[in-house]
Design a protein that fits this description.
47% strand, 6-stranded antiparallel sheet, globular, 4-stranded antiparallel sheet, mainly beta
Length: 203
C-alpha cells in the first residue's frame, strides 16, 4: 500500500487528506464478494487498483466539515494492442446511477466526505485501455459559498489493461497530486452534463 498526504484548505481552515492506494489482492477486503453470484466472477477484479481517500486531520468541526467528491474518468481506448494512438478518448463524470438520475455530479458527500473506488475489467473488446481518474475533494454548495462547487484538493490515479496470449495484464498508475489547472480542464464537461450547478474555477 502507498499512502499519499495532500494538504488542503476548506472554509478557511487547514486540513490533510490521506489517499490509501494498493493492488486488490482480496475480494473480501475490497468488498467484491458482496456482488458474487448472478454470473459475476469477483476473481476478475484481483490485480486492479483500490483507492480510498479521507480527511485525516482538519481544524474545523461540525458544518465546517461539509464536503463532497467529484471524479472524472477518462478512457483512452485503443482498437489494437500495438496501436500507438487511441481510437477514442472518452471522459465521463463518475457518479452513482441514482445520483445521475437526480442530476447530482458527486461521487460521495459527507461531514466530511470519504471516497472509495476499485475499478476492474473495463477492457471489453478493446485491444488496450488506459483508465485514468481525476478525483477532487470539493465544497458542498451552501449559502456561505453562494451555492457553488469549488475544488479543494485533487489527485490522479488509474491503470492500463490489455490481454496477452489469453492473460489479462494490468499496470497500475501511481497516485499524482494535481493542481487547480486539472480541475479547470474538466469544467466544460461538468457544465455541459450538470449545468444546473455553479462551479468556481479557482480555489
Amino acid at each position: 500500500m502507498t499512502v499519499t498526504t495532500i494538504p488542503f484548505d476548506l472554509n478557511g481552515k487547514s486540513g490533510t487528506l490521506k489517499v490509501r492506494y494498493e493492488v486488490n489482492r482480496s475480494n473480501t477486503e475490497s468488498g467484491f464478494d458482496l456482488f458474487a453470484g448472478g454470473g459475476f466472477d469477483a476473481s476478475v477484479c484481483l490485480g486492479y487498483p483500490t483507492m480510498c481517500a479521507s480527511v485525516s486531520s482538519y481544524e474545523g468541526t461540525g458544518y465546517y466539515t461539509a464536503s463532497a467528491w467529484i471524479q472524472i474518468v477518462t478512457r483512452r481506448e485503443f482498437a489494437a494492442l500495438e496501436a500507438a494512438a487511441p481510437s477514442a478518448v472518452v471522459p465521463s463524470v463518475d457518479t452513482h446511477p441514482t445520483l445521475e438520475e437526480l442530476g447530482v455530479p458527486f461521487f460521495a458527500l459527507g461531514f466530511p466526505a470519504e471516497i472509495y473506488d476499485a475499478p476492474c475489467n473495463n477492457l471489453g473488446n478493446l485491444g488496450k485501455l488506459e483508465w485514468l481518474a481525476d478525483t477532487f475533494l470539493v465544497t458542498m454548495p451552501n449559502r456561505t459559498n453562494d451555492y457553488s462547487i469549488s475544488r479543494v484538493a485533487g489527485f490522479r490515479w488509474g491503470y492500463r489493461e490489455h490481454d496477452l496470449h489469453g492473460t489479462r495484464c494490468v499496470e497500475i498508475e501511481p497516485v499524482a497530486v494535481t493542481t487547480v489547472s486539472q480541475w479547470e480542464r474538466h469544467l466544460p464537461l461538468l457544465q455541459s452534463r450538470y449545468g444546473q450547478w455553479k462551479y468556481q474555477a479557482n480555489m
